[in-house]
Amino acid sequence: MKILEKVLESRSIVIDYAIKHPEELIQWLYEDQGPRLFNNNNRFFIILYDKEYYDKPWKLKSAFGQIKNKVYKKLDALTKDEFVEVEFTYKKNSEFDGYYEGALATIVFVSPDDKMESKGFVVKEVAEPLNEQQSLSKWY
Prior knowledge:
Layout: H1 3-20, H2 22-31, E1 43-48, H3 57-61, H4 64-77, E2 84-90, E3 98-110, E4 116-118, H5 136-139
Parallel strand pairs: 1-3
Antiparallel strand pairs: 2-3, 3-4
């Protein structure tokens, strides 16, 4: 297999895993935030992705109307059950280092295939099953 194919396959596995395990991605997003804008506030994360054109993210970002419609649909259908309480340990800046809890967060995945994918919506099946020891932290 060519190196580019391997890179694209690993990206696809990471995206599929994140869609199936949004709580883990949410926790990682809190833990990996930069110290300049660090906060333990409630969050509504929007993840843009396109499995076919990883090398052209500007195309998806420029489709503001499509993104806006999906986000509005998510907001209109949002229930309290779709929020997860986040617990995380921050280790990137001694001023903020420590254990945090109590923030609520949810996430929406936006792709050009016009499906809404997130916790509580359509979730794609993982192309190749992951074993229990694999997680997002393995990829980053």
